[in-house]
């Protein structure tokens, strides 16, 4: 008796959705802004930005800003704009 080919169990890919505000926060953080600077730009408190970051980390299953940016870029949630070594307009 032969055993049937059984595919190994694979964890289902979970669709990650960030809110518009979470994308705004992550984009500012990815540009190098601090939580306070992002809060000022969005006219909210630093605590609110940190709350959004905590939600982003949870949704993306990451532990810090760099991991969040990388994972969001991989998933196509935010655009990747390589600007290292160039100021705006030079790239």
The assigned CATH architecture of the domain at 20-74 is Orthogonal Bundle
- Average of the residue pLDDT scores: 84
Q: CATH H level of the domain at 20-74: which superfamily?
A: Winged helix-like DNA-binding domain superfamily/Winged helix DNA-binding domain
Q: Main sheet?
A: none
User: Helical stretch count?
Assistant: 4
Report the structural category. mainly alpha
| Secondary-structure element string | HHHH
Task: Tell me the strand percentage band.
Answer: under 5%
N-to-C CA distance: 64 Å
**Which fold name fills CATH's third level, the topology of the domain at 20-74?**
Arc Repressor Mutant, subunit A
Instruction: From the alpha carbons, calculate the radius of gyration and give it in angstroms.
Output: 18 Å
Helix content: 40-55%
3D structure, described in words:
- This protein is elongated.
- It contains four helices and no strands.
- It is 48% helix and 0% strand.
- The longest helix is centred in the middle third of the chain and has 15 residues, at 46-60.
- The N and C termini lie far apart (64 Å).
- It has helices spanning 20-30, 35-42, 46-60, 65-74.
- The chain has a domain at 20-74: Orthogonal Bundle (Arc Repressor Mutant, subunit A), CATH 1.10.10.10.
- The protein has 91 residues and is mostly helical.
């Amino acid at each position: 008796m032969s055993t049937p080919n059984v595919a190994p169990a694979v964890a289902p890919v979970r669709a990650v959705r960030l809110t518009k505000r979470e994308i705004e926060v992550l984009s500012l953080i990815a540009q190098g802004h601090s939580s306070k600077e992002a809060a000022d730009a969005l006219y909210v408190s630093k605590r609110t930005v940190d709350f959004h970051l905590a939600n982003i980390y949870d949704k993306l299953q990451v532990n810090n800003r760099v991991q969040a940016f990388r994972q969001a870029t991989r998933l196509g949630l935010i655009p990747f704009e390589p600007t290292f070594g160039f100021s705006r307009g030079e790239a």
